[in-house]
Amino acid sequence: MKLELKNISKNFHGVKALQNVDFQLQENSIHALLGENGAGKSTLVKILCGVYQPDSGIINLNNKQQSIPDPSASLSLGISAIHQESVMFDELSVTENVFIGNHITKSNGLVDWGLMQDKTNQLLKDLEANIEPNEKIKDLSIAQRHIVQISRSLIHDADIVIMDEPTASLSQKEINELYTIIRNLKKQNKSIIFISHKLDEVIEVCDEFTVLRDGELIKSDSIQNTNKDQLITYMAGREVNQIFPKNNVTIENEIFEVRNLFKKTQFKDINFNLRKKEILGFYGLVGSGRTEIMKSIFGITKLDEGEILFKDQKILIRKPSDAIDQGIVYLSEERQQLGMTGLMSVKDNINMAVMDRNSNFYVMNTLKEIKNSAAMQEKLNIKVSYWSQLTQSLSGGNQQKTVIAKWLSTKPEVLILDEPTKGIDVRSKSAVHEFMGELVEEGMSIMMISSELPEILGMCDRVVVMYKGLIKDILNVKEASSEQIVKLASGES
Amino acid sequence: MKKILLNRDFILFSIILIILIAVGFANPLFVTPKSISDVLTDTSILIILALSQMIVILIRAIDLSVASNLALSGMLISLLSTVHPELPVYYFIALSCVIGTILGVLNGISIAILKVPFIVTTLGTLSIYRGLIYFVSDGKQVYSNEFSEDFLALIHVKFLSLSFLFWLAVLVFIVIYILLNHTRFGRNLYSLGGNPDAAKYIGINENKYIIMAYSLSGFFAGLCGYLWVARYSVASTQIAIGFELTVISACVVGGISVMGGVGTVLGCVLGALLIGLIRNALPAVDISQFWQLAISGAIILLAIIINTKTEQRKEKTIMVEN
Fold first, then answer.
1. Which among B288, B279, B211 has a CA at the least distance from the CA of B243?
2. Phi and psi based region of residue A381 (left: phi greater than 0; alpha: psi -120 to 50; beta: remaining)
3. 3-state class of B26 per DSSP?
4. Looking at the domain assignment, is residue B10 inside a domain?
């Protein structure tokens, strides 16, 4: 046994993130750690990395009890984590990122750049990666960044490598290359903890799995003894078809259309239409241009060419308020940065976009504001503890709903949602989905960017598949297979 | 080649050269070796302080207390020298550095341990350190005739017809260059400023680095305390007042990002040189006293705009151009 966690529990302000979780990692094995967002995977990883301390439970490494008081202890025990992009140093070179916190020094105490350069070169060559050691991280693709992170863990001589969603935004070709690297790591006697939402790849690559749900251990077994449907049931705790409550509505006439949208270096030849009461999905890899198109439609960035039609009329959108006046709103992906002001109350956030409607000659009508906010809170079931609670102290799900309420206050006809359920717990997620269904029933049309294929397949009527700034195809969801969509999105067909 | 042309340090260097040539046309006397050597001497303290400020800015902080620290350290050793004129000058320099370092450590402790935001801490110590000068000096000045000869002599030593101040700035440049580029400490400052969360994951102790950075800033402020007093032969409550802003502008002009983790040592020096050049050149080209401050501000702003705009040209590309 390489690593064994016994009875690990961790609470955050009364919320049980992990409850008596056991986890066993065999030597020489690739172990999938599965669960929905908020299931406790990242808490577990952070405990292994020494970022969090468990409230109770023990950690055995190589059959010896260990404590991991801080990240450097974790590194020196041979545990290395490959997180998503956030742990790279964009402005520093590849070499430096590989050796970060572990610079080789000469006998005189100075950093030995030459030696580090050579070692990095050798490592990258061994991994068959075409990366220049001198390049800055900010100039690399996401796949290349992962390889740099893998090189980093090799330099640290880690024998447990944790990979947190390493394939989330890679193309199929890059994913296959990564698999080769992972299998090579296994051959070199490393144990790997592999976190991924893509169950097909989990089944293909991993030897064992552990499923967490709501902070509890649900199942741990060998991959051979399970299948995809079973894994989904373990993760969701219910049958799959219940997850996306898309109501059946009759789709009406076309309401919105774009023709030949073009923005230099970002996207071109963008043509699609949206019909009343329709949910149109936008699927593609992170960075395929979906958000950029929506930002241009909403007037945040300028289009180079192309026209936008709304109810058969050509409209000109120069700035977001033009779009809002027309009844088109955009709910951004980074809700905390762009969608809400954390230091303002829920009421003020909800009314932020409709100040002109709630005021008389530039003086705010507080009564109107309270009425609107109360109605929205009721409708969306936003839970606040007290009247003037600041938005930043709400849970992720309630924050998301506050942003939605803000935009619904403008009474839009076309709603653009950019990754509306990213990073929120399962229950809030399904509430958002249910609500989208209601809005469509009431006559709204929705465009939804999502990187989660099940969400696209469950919620949308049609899906626009994008790859590197181009629309590869627009498919009817009922007739499309997930394989087909994934292939299109990775530019293979 | 294109890479060199778009390099910030190179652009900055070109701007300095262009200003120098332009001023040379307006007033040929300004570009004589003697006059340029005077500009360099005059800018040396700014260079030293900008370099030490850079260390702090690299980790996403700012030290607003440097000028007050400089003035307080300078006053304390001046007062001592009036009482003990017999002590050797090296003693005063070392003492000034020690006082400066202690004042810097206090900043660091307040920020790292007491968690008072850096802007609040150093804004506070800016006033406290300045206020202490009144306390220790009773508001009086120490005049040139009160210093010992030894105390003032060192600053006038010349080597290869360039001043002691200039050579000291060169030495500090080399030391900080090596520190930031060739030691673990320096590289960790870059990572800490570039991505503090990630730096924690690789086991960099943030508090230790904050305290170290502020003590270095304090050390050099202390050193400059001696330099300033000796150069102008006067210590008073008013010396170097507002100079922290000049120091920070030098860093910003030099391309040290206030967002942390970005900037070169050479750029920092060039930034200080540009500001020193403008301050010295404007009087030389017959511009009215009343306009000088506004014009120098405008030139600095313009230099920053040119410098950053050239860099930004590299845009994110999504589409494959066919």
1. B279
2. left
3. helix
4. no
Bridge partners, residue A65, by sequence:
A60
- Between CA A156 and CA B273 the distance in angstroms is 42
Q: What pLDDT score does B322 carry?
A: 40
Instruction: Report whether pLDDT(B289) > 90.
Output: no
Model pLDDT, residue A431: 75
- Band (B312; pLDDT cuts 50, 70, 90): low
Residue pair A71/A47 in contact (Cβ under 8 Å)? The answer is no
Contacts with B318 from chain A: Cβ below 8 Å: 265-267, 287-289, 292, 468-469
* CATH class of the domain defined by A254-489: alpha beta
Calculate how close chain A gets to B196, using CA atoms only, in Å. 9
B2-37 burial: b if 16+ Cβ within 10 Å, else e: eeeeebbbbbbbebbeebeeebbeeeeebbeeebeb
Please give the pLDDT value at position A335.
62
- Summarised one tens digit per residue, pLDDT across range B32-51 is 888 888 889 999 999 999 99
List pLDDT tens digits, range B91-150. 999 999 999 999 999 999 999 999 999 999 999 999 999 999 999 988 888 888 888 878
The pLDDT score that the predictor gives to residue B1 is 57
Residue type at A142?
A: I
Q: Which fold has domain A3-239?
A: Rossmann fold (3.40.50)
Token pair in block for residue B125 = 């110590």
For A389-446, write each residue's pLDDT tens digit.
777 777 667 777 788 888 888 888 999 998 887 766 666 677 788 888 888 888 899 9
Domain assignment of residue B110, given as a range: 36-275
Q: Which of B182, B204, B261 sits opposite A110 (nearest CB)?
A: B182
The type of residue at A149 is: Q
Contacts A292 to B, Cβ<8 Å: 318
Amino acid at A49: C
Domains A3-239 and A254-489 share a fold: yes
Among candidates B178, B199, B316 on the partner chain, residue whose Cβ is nearest the Cβ of A110: B178
Alpha helices in A90-198 (DSSP H): 94-98, 113-126, 142-155, 172-187
* Residue A468 exposed, middle or buried by CB count within 10 Å (0-12, 13-18, 19+): middle
Q: How many domains does chain B have?
A: 1
Question: How many cross-chain Cβ pairs, A to B, lie less than 8 Å apart?
Answer: 90
pLDDT digits (tens, 9 = 90+) for A223-251: 888 887 788 778 776 544 445 666 677 88
Q: What rounded mean pLDDT belongs to chain B? A: 87
Residue B317 lies in a domain: no
Considering only CB atoms, B319 lies closest to which of A83, A110, A268, namely A268
In the three-class reduction of DSSP (H, G, I as helix; E, B as strand; rest coil), residue B54 is classed as helix
Beta bridge partners of A416: A330, A447
Give per-residue pLDDT as tens, A253-301.
888 999 999 988 888 899 999 999 999 999 887 778 888 899 999 988 8
Beta-carbon contacts of residue B11 (< 8 Å; ≥ 6 apart)? B5, B306, B307, B310
| pLDDT band with cut points at 50, 70 and 90 for residue A493 | low
Report whether B218 contacts B105 (CB < 8 A). Answer: yes
Phi, psi of A312, rounded to the nearest 5 degrees: 65, 10
For A214, residues 6+ apart whose C-beta sits below 8 A from its C-beta are A16, A38, A39, A40
Q: Determine contact, residues A418/A333, Cβ cutoff 8 Å.
A: yes
How far the first Cα of chain B sits from its last, in Å, is: 26
Listed by start position, the domains of chain A span 3-239, 254-489
